[in-house]
Structures are given as structure tokens and as C-alpha cells.
Amino acid sequence: MKAMLLNTIASLAENPTPLDQGDLPVPEPGEGEVLIRVSVCGVCHTELDEIEGRTPPPQLPVVPGHQVVGTVERVGAGVEDVGVGDRVGVAWIFSSCGECEYCRSDRENLCPEFRATGRDAHGGYAEYMTAPADFVHPIPAALSDAEAAPLLCAGAIGYRSLRLTGLRDGQRLGLTGFGASGHLVLKMVRHKFPNTPVYVFSRNPAEQEFARSLGAVWAGGIEDTAPEPLHAIIDTTPVWKPIVEALRNLAPGGRLVVNAIRKESVDQDYLLRLDYPTHLWMEKEIKSVANVTRQDVREFLALAAEANLRPEYQEYPLKEANRALVELRRGRIRGAKVLRVAS
Q: In 3D, which of 157, 136, 134 has the Cα closest to residue 90?
């Protein structure tokens, strides 16, 4: 089968073609697993974190990709709830132990044995992949393959982030960064909280205009001050500067939710500008988002189908995965990016 393989860890600035196209044998599903013929796979900023070593795979080579949609071709022994021909998705959560205190309390995203698709196990930048049957998700009929792919991570993690803000309808929400996850959060807010105004902070004027076209009441730069203090802000950027600037824009008692698996070190010195009275006083909070649960993914897929939430996306053939990653790294983003693996 055709696959795009990550063989070495390196900066995309030094190596703009980090993935090598190769041929691998079609994997066999083990006990409790299914074999999926991949149709599409979303491209996520987390792939950049893997490639550049901020969240490196435990072993190489590895097939990246954790927003996978395809059709079940075979099932392993003991699989009962997933059948051949089912259209399914695989998200960032590949598996967890199922036995620890976190798994037993519906917080499997915090499991110490959490395994990530495309990092700890081969992912969807390939024609086939295997996954535990308990961790694949039925795709609603209302969604096309390419529409569903970004929902599995950008959408699901955005859904979790929004829930962690504790936002109530009518309160003011800020979004820092406006890529795949941010634009889906804005669409979600318009459905769930129709009286909530959304303010977007982005370094990219094109993203600012995109945000306004989707209903943001205001869009400005990262260092700008919002017209009003905000009750909550979701940060989806890979760097530190927006964290400090977001805290400055929070209202008393406001909460900043950081939706990033890692932060780059390029502007870490910006944290030295953190000033307690300006940024943290008045019971402001910072909360991180760690991974997703299966429940997050399934609830958001159902919400997207019900509310007709559709991502904006650009499509690339599998062999152009490197181009998609470089464009993502350079901030050439309008919505999500999706690799077409099979027609």
C-alpha cells in the first residue's frame, strides 16, 4: 500500500519534505481491531509538532495522520459492534488502558497509557490502517468523507475547548488563532449560543476577514485590545505571545482555555512580560486542553450532522502531504486541510 512516512525528526524550515512516500504491506487486524481502507485524512498542526520533535513519535518510521475517514474492510477476532462496509473515523485517541482512575471516570484523555493515532501507532496518511474497534467512530450519513475528517480533531477538540470555557449564552468569547479548530468553534457558537458575540485575534489579515465573513463581530491582531473585556478566550496558536495578550483581554473571573498539544519555544521570552496585576489578578484562570475522549468525538459528530456544521477545507492528493504541511506551517490557512487518499 502507498503511505507517507516520517523517518526523521527535523524542522520544516530545514527540511520542507519531511515525509517520504513508500510502500508498506497492508496490515492485518489483530484481536479487537478493524482494517480500514482510508478515504481521506485531515492535516493537523499536531503533525508539525511530531515532525519537529515537540511531541515526537516513540519510534520511527511512523505514518502520521489522526483525522481519518474510511471504510471497514476486515474485522479481527472478537469484534462485534463494527462490521465490514461500515464508514468510520479514527481520531487522535487511538487507545487508552480502560482501567485507571481516569478511564473509569470518563477522562480517558488523561490516561497515562493514552496512545495517539499517527504518533504512537500508524495513522491515516496511507491507503490502509488498523485501529481498535472500540476507538473508531461511526460517521453520520449527512457528512461527506472530506467534511467529516476535520471534525474528528479540529472539531472535537474545539468542542471540548468550548465546553471547558464554561461559557453561557450572551457572554463574550474570544478566539486566538483562526485555523481549522477556530473556524469550527465559531460555527458551533453561532448554533449553541446565538446571543454570544465572538471576537477573533489573528496575525493574518486574511484570517481576520474570514472570521468576519463567518459572523465574528470583531477581528483584529494578536496585540490588539478587544472593544470589551471577554468572559472566555480559546487559544489555538502554537506560540506563547498570544497567551499573554489573551490574558490582558480577559474580564475579571474570565478563563483562558489553551488548545495546543505543545507550544514552540521561539517566543518563550514573551512570558517574561507576564505582569500579575495586568494578566492574572481578579481571579482570571488558565486551563489547558489535553487530548480528546471518544465521547467528545461522537457528541461533536452528532452535533455537526444535526446543526449542519460543515468545515471549510482545502483538499490535496496524498502524495502532496508535504506541500499541505508546509503551507500549514507558513500560515496559509483557510479552514482545514484534507488529504484525498482514495477516490
A: 136
The helix or strand, by DSSP H or E, that contains position 246, with its residue range, turns out to be helix 241-249
Name residues whose C-beta falls within 8 Å of residue 85's C-beta, 6 or more positions apart in sequence. Answer: 71, 72
**pTM > 0.85:** yes
Task: Give span(s): CATH 3.90.180.10, the chain.
Answer: 2-139+312-340
Which of the four pLDDT bands, split at 50, 70 and 90, describes residue 261? confident
pLDDT digits (tens, 9 = 90+) for 99-141: 999 999 999 999 999 999 999 999 999 999 999 999 999 999 9
For the chain, give every residue range classified as CATH 3.40.50.720.
Answer: 155-288
Give the orientation angle of helix 156-165 with respect to helix 180-192, to 10 degrees: 60
Please compute the mean of the pLDDT values over residues 44-57 and round it to a whole number: 95
Q: Domain 2-139+312-340: give its CATH superfamily.
A: Medium-chain alcohol dehydrogenases, catalytic domain (3.90.180.10)
Superfamily covering domain 155-288: NAD(P)-binding Rossmann-like Domain (3.40.50.720)
